[in-house]
Amino acid sequence: MMKYSFILLNEETDGFLKKLQELGVVDVTRSAKPIDDRSSQMLDDVALSKKLIARLEGIEYSKEADKDAIMKASQSAVPQQDIVNAALSALTELSDLETARTTAEKEVKARKPWGEFNKARIDELKTLGYTVRYYIANRKQFSEEWAEHYPLQVISEQGNSIWFVTICPKDTDYSFPIEETVAPEGSWKDAQTEVDDINARIIETKGLLLRYKELIPDIKEAYQHKLTDLDLYLARSSSASAAENKLAILEGFAPAENDSELCRAFDDMGVLYIREEAMEEDNPPIKLKNNRFVKMFESLTGMYGMPDYGEYDPTPVVSIFFLLFFAMCLGDAGYGLVLILVGLAIRKGWLKISMFDGLGSLIATLGAATAVVGGALGTFFGMSIINLVPEGSALKSYYEFVGSDIPTPMGELPFQMLLALGIGIFHICLAMVIKAVGYTRRFGFKENISTWGWLILIVGGLIIALLGVGKLISAEAIKWAVIVIGAVSALAIYIFNTPGRNPLINVGAGLWDTYNMATGILGDVLSYIRLFALGLAGGMLGAAFNDLGLMVLGDGGFNWVFFVLILIIGHVLNLLMSCLGAFVHPLRLNFVEYFKNSGYEGKGKLYKPLRTEVDE
User: What percent of the chain is predicted at pLDDT more than 70?
Assistant: First the structure.
């Protein structure tokens, strides 16, 4: 990155920033939060527009019973000039109307057994000195004899309930075997009229919303302008002022490959600027440079944090190991083929899932890796591939070895568990190598003697152990190698870990570091067992659905329908659950075990140049 400092008159700042927008490669230091009332209002306007676009895009009335009426209402609807606020008000009004309709429909249901009547006429009975009482009784509770003792009229009967009223003079002593109920507020047709009125208003509001949905391109264009204006305003407001507030000083960063082009543009503008190569202490923004394969995984790095300017980009390593870990956790060749098809469908636009927009290639790549690893481990839709391989073939021997238990000093352990642990050890050793090299380049060898000591001890010890197990070197050579590695590591860890400091303090710091490393490394390595456990769990669950389907199938007949349903539903559920685990756990192994041992901090900021079209 190149660093540019611009000095210009205050009144020239807005015009200059607009020219930087047109260049589209200079990242100007700006505020990321509301810095005054105006920027706060601008942010609110942008947020409202984005919210409205999302809600309008989700509107779909084509399957509703009143779709024809809604379309007719849409044709006569007249949108207001303030589209955003008017559309949001219409959405709020629709929600309120639907709530009111639910309440009104409940009232219709409550009144309907009382029939159709004129409430005013009934109220006139009170002026004549009569009281009307309302009752709802269970059929078993209701007695026909009540009509012989009370002026009683049955209104309706439904199921086990009977609705009836009694009419008596006010001054007459009155008692009844059951308690009276609340009198209806009016006829059920009055309530139904209210429901119909609300339905008409809902149809009218939905028609208006359809008109606003047609204006989404205009809303998006206005939203983009607001976003651009906000970006420009924040960049303008972040400039430092000098010379009694008459001069403005701006700072920006751009990739070094654009330097000559930018210098010519700045010279043509006649602006005073200072250019220099960006240093780590300047905290310049980060622009990652990766090939097409690695670029698919940059979003994973972004989830943790961009590297500092002097820090290495972990994405190339993360891409390889996340792909491998995902495939091992999912571990089924059939599921891998499904992911390939889903990824290709999303990439081609045949399948639209908003949360996976732009991730079609990544999903297909993860599926391809899963198909390869699942085939290598011998699982296809929960079935064991070994049962399909001819006896006596080399492939049969291979799958028998993959599924076998290997003798170890701790007893016989599954080969796939040992494979997961071996991959974990390699992953952590690679992290330690990267940490030693990266820290030495950033801070110097003198400051990282202890780091190199641990690297020599652990990685060197593992290499010697592997050579010894493979009988590639003699016992005498192993003895001297262990002595040399032990001595060099001990000196680096306990004596020279911080040159110039009291040796006793260095020894104490080395012992504390030893405790942390011993407990931390062991826990980190054991974390990789999840690669074996998740793959095993998914395979067993898939096999369980297969067995359940076969049990239902029995002798055939129409049972094959349920057999197919069980397989489809079971494997879809298993695939979804397995994909969740296959995403989260590999992410953890990279973010926790790998990043911790590689010394990755991820405190950098993303390169976001000032441009006419601002990324959301």
Answer: 97
Q: Around Cβ 171, how many Cβ atoms within 10 Å?
A: 8
Give residue-wise pLDDT tens across range 252-267: 899 988 899 988 888 8
- State the DSSP code for 306: B
Nearest to 492 by CA among 425, 440, 418, 565: 440
- Better-scored residue on pLDDT, 271 or 30: 271
The residues facing 2 across adjacent strands are: 254, 277
Nearest 5°: CA angle at 415, between 412 and 416? 130
Give Cβ neighbours of residue 553 (< 8 Å, ≥ 6 apart).
559, 560, 562, 563
Across the chain, mean pLDDT equals: 86
C-alpha 318/C-alpha 239 separation (Å) is 37
Provide the token pair at 162: 């009977």
Torsion over CA of 381, 386, 390 and 396, rounded to 10 degrees?
140
- Token pair 């495939």: residue: 327
**Of 320, 395, 60, 71, the residue nearest 203 (C-alpha):** 71
Mean pLDDT over 228-249 rounds to 73
Among the residue ranges 25-34, 56-65, 202-211, the one predicted with the least confidence is 25-34
Of the candidates 501, 493, 405, 506, the one whose C-alpha atom is nearest the C-alpha of residue 448 is 493
Picking from 358, 305, 393, the residue whose alpha carbon sits closest to that of residue 606 is: 305
> Two tokens at 478?
């192993």
pLDDT tens digits, one per residue of 572-604: 999 999 999 999 999 999 999 999 988 898 888
pLDDT at 108: 92
> In the structure encoding, which two tokens stand for residue 56, read together?
């309008």
Contacts of residue 239, defined as CB under 8 A and 6 or more positions apart, other chains included, come to 13, 248, 249, 250
3-state secondary structure of 379: strand
Instruction: Decide if 116 contacts 73 (C-beta within 8 A).
Output: no
Which residue has 């403005």 as its token pair?
A: 248
Please give the radius of gyration of the chain, using alpha carbons only, rounded to the nearest integer: 37
Going from the C-alpha of 249 to that of each of 7, 430, 608, 609, the distances in angstroms are 5, 45, 19, 18
Chain segment 109-138, per-residue pLDDT in tens? 999 999 888 888 888 888 888 889 999 999
Three-state DSSP class for residue 222: helix
Tokens matching residue 360: 């079609």
Domain ranges across the chain: 2-99+198-277, 118-185, 292-408+535-598, 417-527
Mean per-residue pLDDT for 499-504?
75
pLDDT value at 506 more than 60: yes
Helices (H), 238-274: 259-269
Q: Taking the CB of residue 462, how many other CB atoms lie within 10 A of it?
A: 13
* E strand or H helix that includes residue 275: strand 272-277
Report the alpha-carbon distance of residue 570 to residue 552 in Å, rounded.
13
- Crossing angle for the helix pair 37-57 and 188-214, nearest 10 degrees? 110
Taking only the tens place, the pLDDT of each residue in 437-452 is: 988 888 888 888 888 8
Query: What tokens does 28 get?
Result: 């100007």
- Whether residue 497 contacts residue 513, with contact meaning beta carbons closer than 8 Å, is answered with yes
CA angle 330, 334, 339 (to 5 degrees): 70
DSSP state letter for 412: E
Helix, strand or coil for residue 567?
helix
* Helix, coil or strand: residue 607: coil
Q: In terms of Cα–Cα distance, which of 88, 6, 17, 10 is closest to 55?
A: 88
